[in-house]
Automatic annotation (TrEMBL):
Full protein name: PucR family transcriptional regulator
Domain CdaR GGDEF-like intervals: 273-394
Domain PucR C-terminal helix-turn-helix: 451-508
UniProt xrefs under InterPro entries: CdaR-like_regulators, CdaR_GGDEF, PucR_C-HTH_dom, PucR_C-HTH_sf
Gene3D superfamilies (alphabetical): PucR C-terminal helix-turn-helix domain (1.10.10.2840)
Family, as annotated: Belongs to the CdaR family.
The organism's place on the tree of life at top rank: Bacteria
Amino acid sequence: MAPGGLAAAVTGVSVLDPLDPGFRPRQLVLAVGVDARSAHAVDVLRRAGEMGAAGVVFGPAELGPTVAALRTAAEEAGVAVLFRTTWCTWDQLVGALRAGLASAGVSPGPVGQAVMLGDLEQLADAVASLAGGAVTIEDPESRVLAYSSTEEDVDELRRLTILGRRVPPWRVAAMREAGFFRALWGSGDVLHRPAKGGDPERLVVAVRAGGEVLGSIWVAAVACRPLAPNASEVLRSAAPAAAPHLLHHRTRGADTRLVEDAARAVLEGRGSVEVLAERASWPAQGACAVLAVHYGSVAGDEASRLQGMLALHCSAYGLQAVVVPMGERALTVLGSLDADPQRAGRGLADLGSSLAKQLSATRGATTVRVGLGDVVQGLARLPESRWAAESVLDALLAVEGSRVVASTEDVAEAVGIIKVMDALREVTLPVHTPVARLVAFDAEHSGSRMVETLRAYLDHFGDIPAASRALGVHPNSLRYRMRRITQESRIDLDSADARLLAQLQLRLLAASRAPSRPDRDR
């Protein structure tokens, strides 16, 4: 139904909000949740006509006898009536309409300008620049969906909120007890929380679509500066602009597991690159890489929280990540990297360092370590990058030094030794080697440390003072032990072959007693 014809000008798209039922001239209004057969639909058309809206889009409906009333209302209001098809979701419709408007040269407005559908991080940055503060976009459960990339020092509450990927429970409980959420979800306007102590002033507005609460947008003052004078108006404009983005985010959330499954299959060398490219919206031949992140033993909600933080932190760097959990570690797949390998590598190193720092801050006693995979061209080579990332992570965990982020170039020797040890595990050695004799001696004599002593001696190139310090014994005690070791094991310490075999066997022995690394084919 188009009383004014199909040539009517359209300047924008908005989602109907029952609590703020205003219409902008020449806008196409999406009446989400309004039954086209109801009296409410007729009322929506009348108000749309009064305010000069170009048209109203209802959901799929069998109109039947009610079509006459709807047609009459449309003709009287001079407003076009359209219906969404069953095979097109609301968020897909928003994307198609905005793409059409953009191709026709229509500006999306100051808040939504140049923001791609679903890019909540870009939306948060846009709102932050206009409101003059630090922005978070949250779901109704106070979980952080996106935050602005404010570089200046922020308040402690914002820091905790971003690190934990949600508003701290004590803060949520206090706001709930004070009735703040009831006021927020029941209001159609911006709410103001004045500065108090170390907490700066904050503004917040609810985001709705069809009467359903989708989330909220918060803006906080930064560095003791007041918010922009028009910050409240910016949030009022941002709320309806954010609705399609949050709807899109919700729909894409249902696809997260499908993307994860596709990425896992490709990493294991059994999946389709085309499926992963389609589900993740990545170019199949673009630059990509894998990060291997070890965060220790976690389960349930804590594991989900850490994995969400990984994806959220990557998005703050402008990167879309697919997080694949693997026990005590997660493989983070990054697509659409910089085409220049050197720039992509530097960006990957910066991201890894930031991830290790941020996640370690939330894990307390557990130090998070990150292995950087090689940047490869094409999703088909992701298994190569995964191999490099996990090899580096294995080396970082084996060395247990101060380094928490590395690439294969940084720890090539440690990676090489691990690979050699892995290859030697299947080799059958003679039964009566010197190391085998020392193992048997230690087993028969309680408190004996022959194996440990020989390992320290060889690791320190026969330097008695250095080896004795490592063992915590007097140099003369070490000299006595070495004489006993020579007698009991019959090792020829002057032979390079004997020393090499002993070192290899000692490392194999240590590896067999250490916790096993995760099965990468699982």
